Amino acid sequence: MFCHKNGENRVQERARIRNLGSITPISDIYERRSIISPLLFAFPGKQRPPRSDRSVFTKNKKRAAQAKDTHTHTHPNKPEKNSSSTLINDKAFSEHVSGSGCAKWRQQDNNPAARRAPSSVYLMESVRCGAVEDAVISPAPIKPACLFACLPQTVISSLPSFSKMSVFGPVVKIHPVVLASICDSYERRNEGASRVIGTLLGTIDKHSIEVTNCFSVPHNESEDEVAVDMEFAKNMYELHKRVSPTEVIIGWYATGFDITEHSVLIHEYYSREASNPIHLTVDTALQSGKMNIRAYVSAQMGVPGKTVGVMFTPLSVKYVYYDTERIGVDLLQRTRVTPSRTKGLTSDLSQVGGAAARVQDMLTTVLAYIEDVLSGKVTADNSVGRFLMDLVNKVPTISPEDFENMLNSNINDLLMVTYLSNLTQAQIALNEKLVLL
Amino acid sequence: MASRETTVFGTINQTIVVLKIIKHYQEEGQGSEVVQGVLLGLVVDDRLEITNCFPFPQHTEDDADFDEVQYQMEMMRSLRHVNIDHLHVGWYQSTYYGSFVSRALLDSQFSYQHAIEESVVLIYDPIKTAQGSLSLKAYRLTPKLMEICKEKDFTPEGLKKANIGFEQMFEEVPIVIKNSHLINVLMWELEDKSTVADKHELLNLSSSNHLEKSLQLLMDRVDDMSQDIVKYNTYSRNLSKQQQQKHQYLQRRQQENAQRQSRGEPPLPEEDISKLFKPPQPPPRMDTLLIAGQINNYCQNVKEFTSQNLGKLFMAEALQGHN
């Protein structure tokens, strides 16, 4: 994305900074994207699907705009629905609906066929657009589809959901710990600093880049110059390397909405440390009402031989979790709903109760949908019907006696273990008392 | 409470601490090795706020000690530059099926608590977490145990004096997770944009594997305990035998003295009995205490696990009943 600024004096200012050429307004970029795209991608593999995305493009914009409205309306109403309401979130419903077609996207990065998936997704979307457009106003019926796509063990991947851009290329996978770190260092910034920068650490795969760690680097920024404490950055990197030797510097991050000219300089420095560094921006000032998290990579552009410029091209961002991370994040997300933003850790049977309550919530939504279809309010959707079939068939049919036997033997095992552990505890308590006699 | 001892009523973690600990274990701690790290934060009123943490490298090099101290100092200095709290408030450790009550942990926690009154050790159980619920517990040594460790008096008499049982070794401190508004926004974002993985690990019915391992560890510990008990029994038997011998010797002495007196000879000097009969060494009771504590921990975990599973089984029965 170009460093896009208005005004003539800015132009002159930027001409002062080396390596920058002419400025193109953003709108032109979108038009010219199809021309520029073959030049831009220094990465192997993926070509963007040529034409279908353009039409979907506008529809994306419209849908995103509408979804944004519904998003702000409905969220205050369902504070009690926990992270499982990711499924029932109307804002992302379109992505989920189309995403349900591609399974396990994020784990098939080495499979070139999988990267065709986005194009197929978009085609599906354009086909569905007709049906879905009507349903955009009342997104409720589409929700259960996401639900069922989840239950039969497929991992739905959400599409890169930049509201206005759809880009393909190497995927940047971010762990939540990185984002939490960035937010934390933003909150602790020095007085007067408007943004924070830091280094990103992670691993590079053949076609994807995984960001697993980061640390912030002190820097000073003024109108004319940028001073970044590189010594510090090197030191920290060494320390981090001792703990996790597999992580390498893969780029840097900055908080703030846009890319400034200072970013270019910093980016240049980092390209000395790592080949083709990534630049991540996190909009902590929430300028557009959301926290935009974007990743860029720089590419040369311009006329060869004459002034060359640097352009930041966006990359698609995905969030990945380890299993344990996922569970941790689930718990952490429940802090959103309490007014004091706190949450204790529960234990024991109450957790099972909580999980059961969540499943029950999901089931009520499903039932509501089914009622609607039966009463004719909503047209039936075949794929949803198939998922429903799956759901009902998931409860295995076993003859009652067999099931009784299995259940009883399991329960007996558990009861015996409980009894034994109680016995052991009594034993050691007794032993202790005897010693003290 | 008393002016010198501030009891910590609760700890407050930030999101980032939890995530970092999870990540550290995931990347570096495969297998049964423990991963450790330092907790940073500060003390506010009666709460301990943990705001950041960093991991320790594994002890693979020879000059591990030197590296450790230097690593720690450098890390803290660097973190101070970026305005992260650089005050040590404790340390964290991962555990394997709940087996963390050991001499090493006791020593480390003692030295921490000695230096910093309110420090805690956070125990993170990755296996329990993978089963569906984040398992993070904070422990401190009770004041009684602190005193004992200070005096290094581990004999049975010493422990009896302090009247300490295995349940009074560690006290658990309740953990609360608190987030700032910005992190809240981040959580909303993540929920929007992230995929929906299987979050139903908690409702998984298969339990035998976990149960087996837990019981195996429990059995090992009970074996250790029984050995210890046998040692103690032999000691007490020896002690009582010695008492008897002393008694007999004294009696014989007295008899002889009486005879000599009757014959008019001077009585033999009373020899120092303690030199003749050296009392056997009482075995140190600290290990027993630790083992008892560990067994207690295992039993608690097993009971929790079985209660959860019973609930799940009954749910499955209800589902089946409808068919």
Automatic annotation (TrEMBL), chain A:
Localisation: Cytoplasm
Highest taxon of the lineage: Eukaryota
Compositionally biased tracts (Basic and acidic residues): 66-81
UniProt region (Disordered), positions on chain: 46-86
Residue ranges occupied by any MPN domain in the UniProt entry: 172-302
PROSITE patterns per record: MPN
A family per Pfam: JAB
Keywords attached to this entry: Cytoplasm, Initiation factor, Protein biosynthesis
CDD domains: MPN_eIF3f (cd08064)
GO BP field: formation of cytoplasmic translation initiation complex
GO CC terms in record: eukaryotic 43S preinitiation complex; eukaryotic 48S preinitiation complex; eukaryotic translation initiation factor 3 complex, eIF3m
InterPro entries named among the record's database cross-references: eIF3f (IPR027531), EIF3F/CSN6-like_C (IPR024969), JAMM/MPN+_dom (IPR000555), MPN (IPR037518)
Gene Ontology MF terms in the entry: deubiquitinase activity; metallopeptidase activity; translation initiation factor activity; translation initiation factor binding
Self-association state and partner proteins as the record states: Component of the eukaryotic translation initiation factor 3 (eIF-3) complex, which is composed of 13 subunits: EIF3A, EIF3B, EIF3C, EIF3D, EIF3E, EIF3F, EIF3G, EIF3H, EIF3I, EIF3J, EIF3K, EIF3L and EIF3M.
Annotated family: Belongs to the eIF-3 subunit F family.
Role played: Component of the eukaryotic translation initiation factor 3 (eIF-3) complex, which is involved in protein synthesis of a specialized repertoire of mRNAs and, together with other initiation factors, stimulates binding of mRNA and methionyl-tRNAi to the 40S ribosome. The eIF-3 complex specifically targets and initiates translation of a subset of mRNAs involved in cell proliferation.
PANTHER family for this protein: EUKARYOTIC TRANSLATION INITIATION FACTOR 3 SUBUNIT F, EUKARYOTIC TRANSLATION INITIATION FACTOR 3 SUBUNIT F-RELATED
Annotated protein name in UniProt: Eukaryotic translation initiation factor 3 subunit F
Lineage, top ranks: Eukaryota, Metazoa, Chordata, Craniata, Vertebrata
Gene symbol of the encoding locus: EIF3F
Automatic annotation (TrEMBL), chain B:
MF-aspect GO terms: metallopeptidase activity; translation initiation factor activity
Region: Disordered, residue numbers: 241-287
Keyword Phosphoprotein annotated: no
Positions with biased composition (Low complexity): 241-252
Biological processes per GO annotation: formation of cytoplasmic translation initiation complex
Subcellular location: Cytoplasm
Residue spans crossing the bilayer: none
Keywords carried by this UniProt record: Cytoplasm, Initiation factor, Protein biosynthesis
CDD domains in UniProt: MPN_eIF3h
Domain MPN: 11-145
Stated role: Component of the eukaryotic translation initiation factor 3 (eIF-3) complex, which is involved in protein synthesis of a specialized repertoire of mRNAs and, together with other initiation factors, stimulates binding of mRNA and methionyl-tRNAi to the 40S ribosome. The eIF-3 complex specifically targets and initiates translation of a subset of mRNAs involved in cell proliferation.
Quaternary assembly: Component of the eukaryotic translation initiation factor 3 (eIF-3) complex, which is composed of 13 subunits: EIF3A, EIF3B, EIF3C, EIF3D, EIF3E, EIF3F, EIF3G, EIF3H, EIF3I, EIF3J, EIF3K, EIF3L and EIF3M.
Protein name: Eukaryotic translation initiation factor 3 subunit H
Source organism of this protein record: Astatotilapia calliptera (Eastern happy)
Name of the gene: EIF3H
